[in-house]
Every structure is written in structure tokens, then in C-alpha cells.
Amino acid sequence: MKIRKLLIDEAPPFDLLLLADPSREMVEQYMANGECRVAEEDGEIVGVYVLVNLGDKTMEIINIAVDERMHGHGIGKQLISDAIQTAKELGCKSLEVGTGNSSISQLAFYQKRGFRMDGIIKDFFVDHYEEGIFENGIQCRDMIRLSMAIS
């Protein structure tokens, strides 16, 4: 598997990006300001993440997704490792990520990678998405913010 920057003339893998964020409008907004990197296996894009510079030597993984057929193959771990390395190379000291209160497996995933919870943005998903989002039988209302120091 190879992870690389999405080429300027290459169409973003919206099928994957929309797995992590159901709003195409939101995805298009942060894609314009972020660096999109993709994981390829046998010429097929199987994973993606978008890294955005927040300033003050901090970056955020604003979207990360793996093709559902490829879950359990370590691609997400490799994407996180690549994001950490990319942020380091760009001189960042902190990496952040946000996920929904209902995203139980994602919360565990990020914590296993070394992220720690450091805040909650109440009603983020209610205020920024027209349609309700439900996961694991729970309404996604609040954004859980996680961060890690990188050096």
C-alpha cells in the first residue's frame, strides 16, 4: 500500500470522504483549504484523509475514511501515522481531530493512536448539518475534540 498526496488534477474520492462526513458541502469547503492524502492499493484508492493547518503550529485531521471493504487491514493506522509524519515535516507541534459523541469505535481508535480528549463542542452536528446523524442508536450532537503533541 502507498500513501500519497492527491494530485491537483485528480478528482477527490468523495465516495470515501462522505463516509466520514455526510455533507458534501462541508467536505468541499475544507478540501479547498486542506491537503488531501490517499492510500492506494493495486491502483485503487482505499483510504483518505484531509489535513488542515489551524495555525500556531497545529494541524487537524478533518476527515479520515477507509473503504468499508478494507476495514481491519490496518489502513486507518497507516493513515494516522502518515498524518503525524506529514504534520511533523510541516513543523507542527500538535495534531487535532474531532469526532461525534456517537462515534464509539472512532473514539477508541483515536485514543489507541495516542490522542487524548481535550474538549467538547456542544451541538456542533445539530448546528452545522441539516439532517440528523445517528450512529450506534445515538444521535450525533456534540463534537469530541482530541489532540496529541508531536515532535
Summarize the structure.
By secondary structure, this protein is of the alpha+beta class.
For this entry, give a set of tags.
5 helices; two-stranded antiparallel ribbon; seven-stranded mixed sheet; 30% helix; Aminopeptidase; alpha+beta; 151 residues
Commentary on this structure:
The protein has about 150 residues and is an alpha+beta fold. It has a single domain (about 1-150), classed as Gcn5-related N-acetyltransferase (GNAT) (Aminopeptidase). Helix content is about 30%, strand content about 35%. It has 5 helices and 9 strands. The chain has helices spanning about 15-20, 25-35, 75-90, 105-110, 125-130; strands at about 1-5, 35-40, 45-55, 60-65, 95-100, 115-120, 135, 140, 145-150. Helix 3 (about 75-90) links the parallel strand 4 and strand 5.
Mind telling me the CATH superfamily name? Gcn5-related N-acetyltransferase (GNAT)
Overall CATH class: Alpha Beta
> How many individual β-strands?
9
Shape: globular
Kindly give the count of domains: 1
List segments where confidence is low: pLDDT < 50 over at least 5 consecutive residues: none
**Beta-strand share of residues:** 35-45%
Number of H/I helices: 5
Q: Structural class of the secondary elements?
A: alpha+beta
Q: Describe the biggest sheet? A: 7 strands, mixed
In the CATH hierarchy, what is the architecture at level 2? 3-Layer(aba) Sandwich
Distance between the termini: 25 Å
